[in-house]
Write a structure and sequence with these properties.
Blueprint (H helix, E strand, L loop, with lengths): L2 E4 L7 H12 L4 E3 L6 E5 L3 H11 L9 E3 L3 H4 L3 E2 L3 H10 L4 E7 L13 E5 L4 H10 L3 E5 L13 H8 L5 E4 L9 E4 L6 E4 L10
Helix pairs in contact: 1-5
């Protein structure tokens, strides 16, 4: 059963964050809060952890749509290319926030099970816990929304119930308070324009 760790969402305790980072570095899967729904993720550079995550999700790692959490805008520029001025301006206004931006991957994005990804989804959530984890880890965390089979409540919001339902599948569950039940808005920036692929919690038109 996964460890259940309560962390203050406003002022995360560094000692507890370091404990989570140790789990990530060891190849563990972690469930954590974001500014939208709870997420499940692992260290971007740990191939074994990525395989575990894909196995848990029931997807072929070679076909995985890769999304990960960065700390801030300057961190993003390490992992994407082709961020022209109009795109940069919008991201600067919108982040941190409830968006996933699809962008062209740079050479710093590792191969996932031998496959080089041409595009990646970038998140900078407006939530201290995942951002501080990335800062302490020193690189992004692969992120995927935590979903249930419940037709009414697609995304679980209660961390204690999350631990009950998913505690045997992961190594650590963070209790950072109640989550939202709406995911991030997914925006494709690869053409230099902004195409909304999934409408979620964020409204990108507010930042044009």
């Amino acid at each position: 059963m996964a460890e259940f760790l309560r962390i203050n969402p406003d002022n995360p305790q560094e000692r507890k964050l370091e404990e989570v980072v140790d789990v990530l570095r060891a190849g563990g899967l972690v469930i954590y809060p974001t500014d939208t729904v709870y997420g499940i993720g692992c260290d971007l550079y740990n191939q074994n952890a990525v395989k575990r995550l894909c196995q848990w999700k029931g997807i072929n790692p070679k076909k995985m749509n890769l999304s990960f959490i960065c700390y801030d805008l300057s961190d993003i520029t390490n992992y994407v290319r082709g961020m022209d001025t109009p795109v940069f301006r919008v991201l600067k206004k919108a982040l941190p926030g409830p968006f996933t931006f699809i962008m062209e991957a740079s050479s710093k994005v590792p191969k996932i099970v031998g496959v080089k990804k041409k595009q990646v989804g970038i998140r900078v959530p407006d939530h201290n816990i995942p951002r501080e984890l990335v800062r302490l880890l020193g690189n992004p965390i692969i992120t995927s929304s935590l979903k249930t089979s419940d037709e009414i409540l697609e995304y679980p919001t209660d961390p204690e119930l999350i631990a009950e339902d998913f505690g045997n599948d992961v190594d650590l569950v963070i209790d950072g308070g109640a989550g939202h039940n709406m995911a991030s808005t997914v925006v494709d920036c690869t053409s230099g324009d902004f195409e909304v692929l999934r409408k979620g919690l964020g409204d990108i038109e507010l930042y044009y």
